[in-house]
């Protein structure tokens, strides 16, 4: 008996439990960028980086609410790829799915390199490329076993990140209130070193652009929910709690950093959280932060491997990718899709070690704005599909976008402004241009696929693992 399921019968297994999805949602926005990259934002905006992260968080919150409306109404494999396809047609779906796949394939490579560099600090005798390979192989193996295996790894990775942030916030609160031994209580550092916005409010608004990218990952729960027993409830619960994560984890922890350490301290720009732990007198700061950052890296790598495989699987079910990747293992896992993501990711890692930072910088720039393009498409899709549902099945939505349509239009305008700002800001212009090249390559690929496979020969509907209580597909489809 074959160990693989036929493509025509392909259906992802429901291996994720509620606790998995809760932690995937909770830890989805906590990446290595928060622990390290946030120092760059503080250096460019001063203490007002708090405002930059808050504005970016509000934009992300609005996008996720729009996505949640669609995901609760129709939880399907591929999530926003399917919604873009229904709202904007085949081209819109193709571009969305492949941009998102490309984004996370590059995340696989970037996180594998970052993880290898951290391990190299502890294992200097082992070559960097071998350490990166070892990390990729370990997490690829866990993803190949089952969705539940992915969920377990992500559960514990996210738990470490969440605990680290909560402890950091608690210690910071004790210092600010004067309850920490030898502390300097108060918020004087917010204004004592050039003012709250020492580099001007223009710099604060410019810093919103990279901040939005820090929140990328919140949408993964809508993809993972399709492999749970309660997809509608899981998405609804996750999206309702996102505001607390945004305020508590990002804005709160950045407030602690700039309140305890002067924003222009050199160590804040290098590693803001380690800088604060040093002031608090925590022993072994470097080891602690390396461990936390490694956990964040492994979490991102694990999620990226999962996300690339599920998005590729969804692309195959609508005829937008080779059906070779539709095949599932006996445990309901798209192993071929996982292995492709691993292969492309490791090829990027290998090229980085052979040709150095030239390749690594190219990869970073070529995907920098891609996720923002996807977020913009999600927002546009929500408006189109909401209008369609209001005509065909009024009153059927269980979760709705606030103040529709005006807040939806405002969100689209905000996302467009963030993307446009990337084209004009010196620090992000190269990312905008290279991401634009990525978009053009994907659009060109669509034209090739469209000519080889006319729309009339496509499968009628995408694979779904939802129950009959959802809004009917024909109420949303074109």
TrEMBL record:
It is found in: Membrane. It comes from the Bacteria. GO terms for cellular component: membrane. Residues 459-478 are annotated as: Disordered. It is a multi-pass membrane protein. The chain crosses the membrane at residues 21-42, 48-68, 128-147, 159-180, 200-221, 242-261, 273-301, 337-356, 362-385, 406-425, 431-449. InterPro entries: AA-permease/SLC12A_dom (IPR004841), Amino_acid_permease_CS (IPR004840). GO terms for biological process: amino acid transport; transmembrane transport. The keyword Hydrolase does not apply. Keywords: Amino-acid transport, Membrane, Transmembrane, Transmembrane helix, Transport. Residues 20-444 form the Amino acid permease/ SLC12A domain. Belongs to the amino acid-polyamine-organocation (APC) superfamily. Amino acid transporter (AAT) (TC 2.A.3.1) family. This is GABA permease. The lineage of its organism: Bacteria, Bacillati, Actinomycetota, Actinomycetes, Mycobacteriales.
